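Reopening this one. Same input as before:
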Amino acid sequence: MVNFKYSALDSLGQNVNGQLEARDENSAFSTLIGRGLSPISVQARTEGLGLSRLKRIRPKDLAMMTRQIAVLLSAGISLTETMSSLANGASHPALAERAGRVRASLRAGERFSACLLREFPTLPPYVPQMAELGEATGRLGPALMEAADQFDYDQEIASEVRSALTYPLFLLCAGSVIVSIMFVFVVPRFADLVSQSNASVPTISKWVIGFSMWFSTHWLLAIIGAAMLGGLFYWGVRSMKGGLAGIAEHIPIIKKYQAVSTLARWCRILGGALQQGSGIMPALELAERGVNAPQLRAGLAAARTSVRGGEGLDEAIARNIPGFDSVAIDMIRTGRTSGQLADMMLFAAEIYRRETQERTKKLTALVEPLAIVSISLIVGTIVISIVLAMTSLYEIAP
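Same output, byte for byte:
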């Protein structure tokens, strides 16, 4: 038996709260109805918060949840039963608890898209927006399936990037430890020899030895300073409009990659929304919200305004976003004139998805040699400065 807490209305319309034991939630509802009550919400009680319940809900968990909801709804299961299945079967305790709250809110008459926004604020914006579109068109299952496909794709790219960066980050950490050891224990041994001699030490050797002496004395201050700089950088990125996406717009190497990746997402969301029966304006607004880059998003907003004024989508984009991909504009023009804009956008999304994967592989392939070269330059500079200093000492030796 499970202990449930409930909220219900009695025969006089008064709110009644309490607890009861039942085999499952359906039995609890039946029991309350048998008592002459009208159940509003029934939730299993949780005995404290264990470590498993405190685990952060990962994007991977949310992507799986979105896919499960879409599959169950497409199979003809009602939304309330779908959330009951998630609440009872989710492996993540916090996810199951939130699914239970969504189920209770649905029974109280709240919209599913609003529940998603409240209970899962870390979901990508396009997921609750596609849910809202599905509610409006009566195609919630297919709409969430489109959102799940895009969510899975985003997670796939993020996983590839994380996997590719693991070894370079290890190299950087190991190299930083080696450099720190050299500055603290190795280089200072030569400082006394240099200071006691009258040798003309090269400038680079003086700089390296001087920094080593300062670092060996103030290493704790150096660590605190590095942590503060990291915190300031993180705060600056979070406070900047667009965050990392806004910074990436100004980095030549990453700018093109971001443009292709964003274009793939925009085409996918736009095509999926149109395929689910959305009008062109709501679909454009929905796709625009999936764009993180501030400049591109502003251009798309201006293009949407032009489309509202009667201009063709391809013409509006070409005029408001000068650097927009010409191939995408041709596809939009073809889809608009043929009446197959949704299919054309999904086709374009697949093309740009493949291009994004290729660019991801190329970018991540550059990180490892860059990490090796960076560490090699630092260690090499230290070694060369020591060798030059020793050479200067030998030159004045009798």
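So the earlier flakiness isn't reproducible anymore. For the record, The chain is about 75% helix and 5% strand.
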